[in-house]
Automatic annotation (TrEMBL):
<protein>
    <submittedName>
        <fullName>Sugar nucleotide-binding protein</fullName>
    </submittedName>
</protein>
<dbReference type="Pfam" id="PF04321">
    <property type="entry name" value="RmlD_sub_bind"/>
</dbReference>
<dbReference type="InterPro" id="IPR029903">
    <property type="entry name" value="RmlD-like-bd"/>
</dbReference>
<dbReference type="InterPro" id="IPR036291">
    <property type="entry name" value="NAD(P)-bd_dom_sf"/>
</dbReference>
<feature type="domain" description="RmlD-like substrate binding">
    <location>
        <begin position="66"/>
        <end position="279"/>
    </location>
</feature>
Length: 295
C-alpha cells in the first residue's frame, strides 16, 4: 500500500515514517506542502492521501487556519477527481466549548470562531461529496520530534530552566503521535482489504487530564530519569493557567467506534510519555567504553 503524506516534518508524518519503516507492506511518499493537484495524484497513484492535523487552531492566527482550509479544499478536489481516498486528521479544539460527557463521533463540532467554522464546512463537503474518506479527530498530539510535537517543546523549556505555563481547567486526552500512526496504517490496510468502514472516528489517549497535570507529570518523570543518569538538573517550573473560572472545559473524545470498526485500542498516554522519556534519555546516555561493553 502506498500512502501520500502531506506537510512534511509534522510530528504525525515522522511517526508514520517510523511505522512504515518497520513494515514491508507500506510505502510512504511525503510532499512538503499541503496542497496537491489531480495531475500529481495521477502521477503518484497513492492508495490514500493523509493530511496531518492543524495543531491548536484556537491558539494561532486565523489566517493560518484559513490557509490550512484552502489546502484541504484543494486536496479534496484532487482526491474527488481521481477517486483517491482522503484521510483528514483534525484537532479536538474544533469542539470549542467542549461537552460535559465524552463526545461521540456522530457529534459534528459547532465552534463559534469563524475560522474554525470554515474547517467544519470543509468537513461537510468531504462527508457529502467523497464517500471514501476518514475524518479522524485527535486529542492534543505529543511526540519527541517534528512540528507540533508538544512534548519536545515542554522538555526543551524545562531543561532550559524556563517556566511552562499550562491550563489547569481544560480537560482533554493527550494522544501519542506514534499510536495514531500505527492506528491509521492498520485502519487503511483493513479498508484496502475490503472493509467499508469509512467515516468519522475519534482517536485519543486514555485518561482525561489537564494540560497542567500532563506537564507536571512530564517534569516529575524527567527529573527522576535525569537523577538516575547521574545528571540532575534544575528544571523550570510548571505554572497553572485558568481560563474558565466557573467550571473546567471538558474536551474528551469517545473512541468506542474505532474499536468496534477496526479493533483499535487507545494507548494510555502515561505509558507513551514514559516510553518517550526513556527514549529521550537513552539518546543522551554516553556510549559505553570498549572495556565496559565487554564486561
Amino acid at each position: 500500500m502506498k500512502l501520500l503524506i502531506l506537510d512534511a516534518g509534522h510530528c504525525l508524518n515522522l511517526a508514520l515514517a517510523r511505522v512504515a519503516h518497520r513494515r514491508s507492506d507500506t510505502e510512504l511518499v511525503i510532499e512538503a506542502g499541503l496542497e496537491i493537484d489531480a495531475e500529481r495524484l495521477r502521477e503518484l497513484a497513492p492508495d490514500a492521501v493523509i493530511i496531518p492535523p492543524l495543531s491548536g487552531p484556537m491558539d494561532i492566527e486565523p489566517a493560518a487556519v484559513v490557509a490550512h482550509g484552502h489546502g484541504v479544499d484543494a486536496c479534496l478536489a484532487a482526491c474527488r477527481e481521481t477517486d483517491t481516498p482522503l484521510v483528514w486528521c483534525v484537532s479536538d479544539q474544533l469542539y470549542q466549548d467542549g461537552f460535559d460527557t465524552p463526545i461521540d463521533e456522530h457529534v459534528i463540532p459547532a465552534p463559534r470562531d469563524e475560522s474554525l467554522r470554515r474547517l467544519i464546512a470543509i468537513g461537510d463537503r468531504i462527508r457529502s461529496g467523497h464517500p471514501r474518506h476518514l475524518i479522524v479527530r485527535l486529542g492534543p498530539l505529543f511526540a519527541l520530534e517534528g512540528g507540533h510535537a508538544w512534548l519536545s517543546d515542554v522538555i526543551d523549556c524545562l531543561i532550559a530552566g524556563d517556566n511552562v505555563r499550562a491550563a489547569q481547567d481544560v480537560i482533554f486526552c493527550p494522544t501519542s503521535a506514534d499510536a495514531v500512526a500505527m492506528a491509521l496504517v492498520g485502519m487503511l490496510h483493513q479498508l484496502a482489504c475490503g472493509s467499508s468502514a469509512w467515516g468519522a472516528y475519534h482517536l485519543a489517549g486514555t485518561e482525561p487530564v489537564s494540560a497542567y497535570t500532563f506537564t507536571s507529570l512530564v517534569r516529575t518523570q524527567l527529573a527522576t530519569r535525569l537523577e538516575g543518569l547521574g545528571k540532575p538538573a534544575t528544571l523550570g517550573e510548571v505554572k497553572a493557567l485558568k481560563h474558565h473560572h466557573d467550571q473546567p472545559l471538558r474536551r474528551v473524545l469517545n473512541c468506542r467506534r474505532v474499536l468496534e470498526a477496526f479493533g483499535v485500542h487507545q494507548k494510555p498516554w502515561r505509558l507513551e510519555v514514559g516510553r518517550m522519556l526513556d527514549e529521550w534519555c537513552q539518546a543522551r546516555r554516553p556510549p559505553l567504553a570498549e572495556g565496559d561493553a565487554r564486561s
